[in-house]
Design goal:
Two copies of one chain form a homodimer.
Chain A: H1 12-20, E1 25-26, H2 27-37, H3 46-58, E2 62-68, E3 74-80, H4 82-106
Antiparallel strand pairs in A: 1-3, 2-3
The structure holds a DNA duplex (30 and 30 nucleotides).
Chain lengths: 111, 111
DNA sequence: GATTCTACATAGAGAAACTAGGTATTGCCA
DNA sequence: TGGCAATACCTAGTTTCTCTATGTAGAATC
């Protein structure tokens, strides 16, 4: 987050759920994917991502499964759960409400 | 903030600068004004507002001036400074950048 | 006379993100 | 083959925000 990184706060979980709502992903992949999809804007730090993934798993919103590659390496793929999907929908709604309220203040309609 | 209150983080300063960029305001008025303009969405707590105002003043973005009412009561009006105006413009830009990036993830264009 | 509204303030708790460090494997290049 | 970059995971400690809870005090209302 080059500038205005404080804006991240409160949105990390939504972004992660959103990605995993589309397909299971592992940590390193998530970092790369978020950077790519946001055209370089989101550059998650590991100290942000991994604790967030563990938090989401503890909350039952995602579930991690170790997968052994033919190379012998281990990757931990996270899958979204039903509860996670429901939370994703909820969070998307909250984000839209928040956006609406912000726009009322930040770009007040003349009148 | 009824739900999704974490979304506030990092945006309090922008909202405050935005209001004071239009006219000087005092604390209690800011709380009421934000609630009114956001159609009830923003309900700032005092424990959020006053520390934020002091933070902005320490940073030289706003300046508080006590004003004595005819009733004998004191109100502390905060005025935005030149530095505050510059920061407001900057923060608005950061907000738009953030919004753009969020939309790329949250509502990915099919393709 | 009591409660509510106006108006300011802070201390402490909790949560979230970052800094900075650690481990280990793989692949590349000189 | 020796070193470096990339891949891939992790956490302890710090900082920063926001909220909870509380305090003070005058004005208005009931």
């Amino acid at each position: 987050m080059p500038q205005g990184r404080e804006l991240m706060k409160g949105n990390v979980d939504s972004l992660l759920l959103c990605l995993m709502g589309q397909q299971p992903m592992y940590g390193y992949q998530i970092i790369k994917e978020l950077e790519k999809r946001s055209q370089g804007y989101f550059k998650f730090k590991e100290g942000t991502l991994y604790p967030a993934l563990h938090r989401l798993e503890r909350a039952g919103l995602i579930q991690g499964k170790w997968q052994l590659l033919s190379s012998g390496q281990q990757r931990k793929y996270y899958h979204i759960t039903d509860k996670g999907l429901a939370t994703l929908v909820e969070k998307r709604g909250q984000w839209l409400d928040f956006l609406f309220a912000m726009n009322l203040i930040i770009q007040p309609s003349r009148g």
